[in-house]
Amino acid sequence: MQSIKFSLPSDLPLEPLRAFDLVVREGTFSAAAERLGLTQPAVSLQVRQLERRLGVRLLERVGRSVRPTAAGAELLLHVPAIAAALQAALRAVGSHASEAAGRVRLCTGLTTCLYLLPPVLHRLRAAHPRLEVVVSTGNTEQCLRGVESNTLDLALVTLPVASRALTVVDVLQDELVAVGRMGGTPALPARCTPGALASLPLLALDAAATTRQIVDAWLRRSGAVPRPQMEFDSVEAIKAMVCAGLGVAILPRMAASGPGLPDALEVRPLVPRLQRRMGLVLRNDKPLNRALQAVVQAITEAGRPVA
Fold first, then answer.
1. For residue 91, what pLDDT band results from cuts at 50, 70 and 90?
2. Is 184 exposed, middle or buried (0-12, 13-18, 19+ CB in 10 A)?
């Protein structure tokens, strides 16, 4: 469908149009000037400017009173519609100053989207009915690229993020845990140390994932280079493979706890413990309108530990 280009005229005569309307309603220039808080010559000038802009005479004097010409009467028929359209536009714009409204584009990883965002988005919808949050998923690199190019408003990613063009708001620390098949083989060791886990068949996230890099650095404490048997781009895929007895994994606790956890999974803490930091990222020059502020606040509050 071909788009229609439209632009307002640069000399849109709103003030002269109001002056013209009041002159007709009040019957004299002096009465209209009093209503507008202007001098009579100023009102006369505004009406003359409007007449020059339209190329027709709009008013005629009859004795001491003023009445519209045929062209003026025609113009008066459109004044209510013009006034109503302007008021509607001002109300629509004003709502953005008084409430969170409009669209916010957010990108995050699939795990965060599945386990952290649903209750956050539910609360946002209840509190701000005119707010639209568009969520897409991707790895950290994809999310940051979208924020930097301004095709995304913000991203919720695993930290650290190294970019002077971006502002980072810490949201939460998510513990990483060992996950294995309950009562199966290979079994999780009693103490899930780097050395103990490095000797088992490991299922891991793709090497480009920030969480994978954090896990690999932890495993290197054993002195061995981590060599996973399988790599996946999804935590959910890894959980399914662990349930099938194909290996063990180190996953975010948010994805390894809660009512949706398969009965076949066993979860144990790492020794020493390991956490990943997650944060919201947006451009330094990004204006924080009410809609964006509402989303940032809701996600930040969701990441705070329960007292």
1. low
2. middle
**Rounded to whole angstroms, how far apart are CA atoms 214 and 118?**
26
Handedness of CA 61, 62, 64, 70 (dihedral sign): negative
For 45, the enclosing helix (H) or strand (E) is helix 40-54
Position 2 pLDDT exceeds 70 = no
Residue type, 301: E
Evaluate if residue 234 carries a pLDDT over 80: yes
Tell me the two tokens of residue 176: 């990483």
pLDDT tens, position by position, 281-292? 999 999 888 999
Specify the length of the chain in residues: 307
Q: What angle do CA 27, 31, 35 make, to 5 degrees?
A: 120
Q: Calculate helix-pair angle for 29-36, 40-54, nearest 10 degrees.
A: 100
Euclidean distance between CA atoms 34 and 21, whole angstroms: 14
Q: How far apart are CA 253 and CA 247, in angstroms?
A: 18
Structure tokens at 257: 């706890």
3 state SS of 182: coil
Confidence (pLDDT) at 87: 72
Q: Grade residue 277 by pLDDT with cuts at 50, 70 and 90.
A: very high
Find the Cα–Cα–Cα–Cα dihedral 255, 261, 265, 268, rounded to 10°.
50
